[in-house]
Design goal:
It catalyses: (R)-pantoate + beta-alanine + ATP = (R)-pantothenate + AMP + diphosphate + H(+). This protein has 311 residues and is an alpha/beta fold. The chain has nine helices and twelve strands. The model has no long low-confidence stretch (mean pLDDT 95).
Length: 311
């Protein structure tokens, strides 16, 4: 264990369990915010909610290799541990984060971990029926990796509550089902998406974008809001609303920028994530999208996701 100026830094599973054991004996609640680092205001909103609702709060910083495919940006994913710790130490005035778990890959994957799914060894977790659509179409191993690392982290920390952002809507549905089906005694809390002043959803991948591109990307949320307005207009007329008119409106708006590549726009049932042709008021839908946009000083594109909830 090491101590930053204000926060206890834990490097191993045994250190976390030792820290947690005392809190069990003292009957103190623990909030947990799992992250991959490159912290921003969205992460801070999760931490702030945990600080409000729990006696103690622990944050993990771990870039999880098992959710990356061989062709994805694992090596280039931003790693900013010193800055992350500074943020956790300085951002919260009334109450401080108590511990940060910063494990090595070998600590989380004792058998090692290959990005090639066929070469991976050990235990992995799949949430079938919720992981194959939307993000799962283009990133088929993503939720297998997410579900596996979240299961590991929940087993290590054994938190009272765990916190995720609504921006990752499909992930929230997957984790809710994971916790329910594996009977993990942790409450999943989903916190509203935090946005930049122009509406762009906060994301670690925003670091790939120039300021001009961030401003241009604000059209993504504007398009989602236009889709929501169209839904509300039709809902007031009574009855179910055809999802295709909402999806088409969103695509039309985003397509005004010919440098943007629409990977998908979908309307999904809020629990099953199945595509919905007709949106029933009272049941609603998650309208989500993935858009590829030009990176700064690169020929590659950054992949941005966002969503809006229809009631």
């Amino acid at each position: 264990m090491t101590i930053s100026s204000k926060i206890l830094i834990l490097r191993t599973v045994s250190q976390v369990r030792q820290w947690r054991a005392k809190l069990f004996s003292d009957n103190q609640s623990v909030g947990f915010v799992p992250t991959m680092g490159a912290l921003h205001a969205g992460h801070c909103s999760l931490v702030r909610k945990s600080l409000e609702e729990n006696d103690k709060t622990i944050v993990s910083i771990f870039v999880n290799p098992s959710q990356f495919a061989p062709h994805e940006d694992l090596d280039n994913y931003p790693r900013t541990l010193d800055r992350d710790l500074e943020i956790l130490e300085s951002e919260f005035s009334d109450k401080q984060v108590d511990a940060v778990f910063v494990p090595k890959v070998s600590e989380m994957y004792p058998n090692g971990i290959s990005l090639d799914i066929d070469k991976q060894k050990g235990a992995f977790v799949n949430v079938h029926g919720l992981s194959e659509q939307l993000e799962g179409i283009t990133r088929p191993q993503f939720f297998r990796g997410v579900s596996t690392v979240v299961t590991k982290l929940l087993n290590i920390v054994q938190p009272t509550r765990v916190y995720f952002g609504q921006k990752d809507a499909q992930q929230c549905v997957v984790i809710n089902n994971l916790v329910r089906d594996l009977m993990i005694p942790t409450k999943v809390r989903v916190v509203q998406t935090v946005r930049e002043s122009n509406g762009l959803a906060m994301s670690s991948r925003n670091e790939y974008l120039s300021k001009e591109m961030k401003d241009r990307c604000s059209i993504i949320y504007k398009a989602l809001k236009e889709g929501a307005s169209l839904y509300n207009e039709n809902r007031e007329k009574g009855g179910k609303v055809n999802s295709s008119i909402i999806i088409d409106r969103i695509k039309d708006i985003v397509s005004q920028n010919d440098e943007f590549e629409i990977e998908y726009v979908a309307a999904s049932h809020p629990e099953s994530l199945e595509d919905v042709e007709l949106i029933e008021p009272g049941v609603g839908a998650i309208v989500s999208c993935a858009i590829k946009v030009p990176k700064e000083s690169s020929t590659e594109k950054a992949r941005l996701i966002d969503n809006i909830i229809l009631q």
